[in-house]
Structures
1.
Amino acid sequence: MRKLTLGRSILLGAGILPLTAFAAETGFDVSDEPTPKKESSASAASIEVTSGVRYQGSSSALFGRYNGSPENGFYPFVGFDFGKKHPWDSGNTAYFDVTGTNLSSNSDRVLPNASAALSFGKQGSWGARLFYDNISYTQSLTFHTAHTETGSLLRGTPGGISLTGIALTNPPNATDTAISAAVANILTQRSIESQRDTFGASFSSRIATHWTFSSNFAHEHKTGTKENSLLQGTSTGINSATGNIIYFPEPIDYDTDRFTTSAGYKTREMQFQMTYSLSHFINNRLGIVVLDPFSSTTIRSVPLSATYSLPPSNFAHLLKAQFGYNFGGTTRLTATAAYGVQLQDASFVPQSTNPSIVIPPVPANSFDGEVQTYFASVMLTSRPLRALDFKASYSIDERNNQSPRFNYAPFLNDTASVSGINMNAPYSFQHQNANGELGYRPLSSARFVVGYTYDQYTRTFSATNLNRESTYYARMITQFASELTANLGVSYGKRTASNYFGDAAWIALGETFPTALDSLGLQHFFESARRRDEVKGELTWAPLPNLAMAVTGKFYRDHYDRSIFGMTHDRAVSINPDLSYSPVKSVDTHLFYSYERLSYRLADRVSVSGTGGTSQFYWSLAIPNTVHTVGASVDWQVDPNVKLGAAYIHQYGTTAFNQSGFATGSLGTSPWNYNVVPLPSNTSNLNSLNLHADFELTEDATMQLGYIYERFHSKDYLNAQLPTSPLYANAILGADGDPSYNVHVVTAAFRFRF
Amino acid sequence: VVAASEEPAEPTYTARGAQSCMKCHDQAPVTDILKSPHAVKGDSHSPFGQHDCESCHGPSDKHASSAPGYGAKRTLPEVSFVGPNVSSVEKRNAVCLNCHESAMRMDWVGSQHQNNNVACTSCHTLHAAKDPVLVKASQPEKCFTCHSEQRAQSFQSSHHPIREGKVVCSDCHNPHGSPGPRLLKETSINDTCYTCHADKRGPFLWEHESVRENCVNCHLPHGSTRARLLKERPPYLCMNCHSNGGHNASPYSASNLPTGTAQVDARAVSARMLARGCVNCHSQIHGSNSPGGSFFTR
């Protein structure tokens, strides 16, 4: 039976999916109602052009994050699809297809979100494809900064921003207020956005009866800026007269080349494929020198700028072999082996540009980093009897970091080097996995599965060098009738961490006071002992040909039994009912609801020593994130020439911070008894309505109209934070502000077929 | 894996192939397959280069030629993909794997989807000029039919551009099976992420262990209500591992917001409660290549 899905209407309902994509990729008839016309053997050639205009009523970085239209205004666009395929029975296998989607430009961007492709070849012999794709990303339209993307100060070196006398107290003193006012004068607002342009080509051919060859190459240029920040000055943060946090637009100027070539052999019994791939990432900038807007003061012996490294250029080579063999139709063996090398040898940027300190020599001018990766897996599946099947698999995945290890003088900022981490740790990991599974079918419509998985992780320079995890699971996959299916799975896993010693990780880095950082009781959740319980289920029921219902659900919880501090528990629940109903043949409706709750529990302790002795403050925090999503859509084929649709999405999310604490010790309750005031809950609220109508004016012309109203409301304590404040006068924040938006979008397009 | 007892019977194909079928099955969407790559007579590797419709539906001479008697039902084709007489999932999939058990489908047998009785035709539409699941704009709807949790996550404020049609599920996942985790195309989670985020690949001089080991230690790739697809927001995300000492152990709360009340040393505001929290200073949290970057600040 036809399972109605929420599908495209809901995607459009979000108001984001470009209308040209909709027009280019689907026929007018989205239902499965037969078209009453005879199929001819005529050549299948088609030219389809879609042209239209989109008007967006207001600007929003979040609404337009990926679609290239964050600003309000008119956005004309064009799309086309021109293809030819010879009649199926002609014997001619040549074909070609040219498509273009969202071809447009505006004053700020060229081809935002556009894509185009040309495919041609002779089916069964060879095929080639040339393509272009653009992904734009808008992070902010209201980023506050004093800097350009080259690190210089936008309005020149400011005068009068002296941190002398700064107190950063509450309430602020007069100097705090004066500095903040001076900072405000050097700030500007700008957008933070980037764009990926990818060009590429691929080719495939059948080089012999059982052999195929394929190769593809893509070059991506990514340009723009991203929001970043750094610590300047001589201290660690904002609670200091000599340290600052500066937000600045980090320049993006990347080129990435990707090349893959493979040869495959295939018969019914045996398949084999060998693949080589290369990824070469080039950052055209090694680093950025960010001028310090607070350096005009003469009282501070701080540098005028900070040198900040940017992501280093790197190579990744990978050679992979895959093998599959069928033994008589009931047993199959597959194996994969891969070897990779990741290299990075970009030149170092200077540790500091501070002329007043002696820069210690570095062991080399570049890192000469090398990571070797190994992967191997083998899997045997068999169904020796009608009612019995089994699976056994093993895999090993290793990251072997061969990079050199040296001492480096550590810098937190641009003062003299500090104590602490001074030796790099080239982390290596190995993960082995073994799995055995037995399936039994008491009936043709029911399968019961039990299995066991063993995972082993080994690491270097880590708090634990060995994790072992055993997971036991059982599943039931049943089809009670053609219209009713139910799946249920449960699992229990237990992970151990051998000789967990948190300080070991710090000692490996040369840290000299590790016990102050990771003493007994704190364990990193991703490598600590853990118990996991998990349940997953799915039920689908289609009692009528025009009615289908489904519900999926998932629950898991993790207990980190040895963790007293840090993350001690996490859990997740999701329930997702879904209903599709077609009251009459021409109307499809869909309704879904989704509930998701992720929660994390964190515990911690602060020790404080004073003249009266030592006190400890114990505190805990539970963070439940809950999201409700409701979606509804209806599509109505009014008559053969008119189709109407509507979709609505509502999503409400909330994050709570349930925090509490208490003090013990001889210092008493004041002033070390921290005043823990729970944070206000953050909420987000999305309402999205999409209306669309398609009118087939003639057999070759269709008019498409669309209207979107989308409202997003965010309540978050971060939204109110200002770029500068007397309370943090030595910091400059990006302060993007409230991402809430209220957007109306009207779209009109015509699609012509020639 | 198909049980031995379901081996196909002795083949008996119709004499005229698709011409026989189209005597009755002459309407869309059945005939839409003629616009697809499966229907290319000149390509001996395509179904229509072999036995036309019967390459997939099985030898069906009886179905095509023997008219049923009064009140009797017509003999069914060997393999039916839809309708009340639909063949078993194994039988349907065996038809597809007959040609497609190679390259990215090599690991289908034993994969999560195969284990859950998913048919190839549950996702793929053969009788169409373009299979919707192979088209960027329409692929997610097909995946979301079953993966409804991911559908809801795609609407969260921080998400990959799936709603926008620029990234699709198959950019990261191989639904046909994978030797790696979570049906990923690459053999590890991080290598999958590095496909697009090669700037995070390194190797870096200063590495952050949890980052190197697994991106999803901190990120939720399908969507999050926190910025940057984060599981939690800093400083709490960071404090899951960095606690119990130093400035990363303090009970940061509303007291430490700009609107908070005076706390230790009469300072109200903590840098960890502003903007990106810990990352304000430790902004090279994915790794640093500066000799002075051991604290991920340069």
2.
Amino acid sequence: VLALVIAPSQIVTASFVASVSVPFFLSALSRGPCLVRDLRQRLRLSSVLAIAFWIGMVLSGDELWRFDAKAAGDLLAGALIILSCILTTLIILLLVAAGVSTTLLVSLSTNPGPVEIEPWLADYGHGFGVRDLFRDRLNLLLGTHAAVLRESTVVIVRGARIPIALLEAAMLYFDFSKPTGR
Amino acid sequence: MSLLVGLLSFAALVIVVPVVVRLGQRRNAIGIIMAAAMAVHLAGTIAGAVFLAELDYWQNASLYWFATVILIYAYGTCYRSLSVLMLLAVYRTASRTMEVETLYDVHFRGFIRDRIDALLEGGRAEFRDGRFVITPAGRSGAALILRARRVFALKESRLYFNTTNRIEPG
């Protein structure tokens, strides 16, 4: 016999409602009087608003005030549900906003006909091309302080060996250890 | 105890993932990882409900899926992060250094070619008479992305740094 409790508690239900509110807050902050221009800040604020919304719902309910093991477990579960939703939103947003394949696909769809590779890549973002993308991602890499630029050479920083070894282990784990790029 | 069932299920998934990614033919294994995650979740939930006096489904599921989303984020970073690929390309040289131009010409262009290959492989674009052309599947995918960009006003966010983006995107 399966001893399974499927009916969600108030706290868990509140976390679902708050999770759904993340894209709504994000959309509301993307336009009009509440516009937040910086994308990172917009996501951060949407997340804070959703969490505040959830906390408000939990505090106004009666489950939390029982202070039992079930309430504590549900509180942790609810927090994990919201965090999962925020992380999923972040993944999708980054993919849609800055994904290379997505931008290549959009650029191909806005071109009236077939394109040749070189002119396409040189201006695939209609205003920026692969060289700009390279500079952008190189800046992102340098921003992590794992590598520095000396004159025109990229040099790995000595202190980055351990994080890079972990990265290599992750690449092996996911079967990406064979070097790509030719 | 329900949270522990979620944690143990995730531990099982961590063991299963490296096996299933090596079974798939396609380079992008997100689909197969998701299928494995659902199967492990189902098996873990049934096992928990059989062995425990009472299994709270949502406590079990929340921990499991939270950890799984992080695993998928890590997979995505290894799979598609150009910065990570560049870092490893430099790290794999004997001197741990690389000229910027070599990094661009030899490696970065290769990473971009991989992305284009993925579009071709996924049936979103075709290579005809030396030119690239979008397929109907690619067109509907692009329309979906454009709609999402409009809803979330993402027009100017295609690069991470505006400073490097000297020409303003349209």
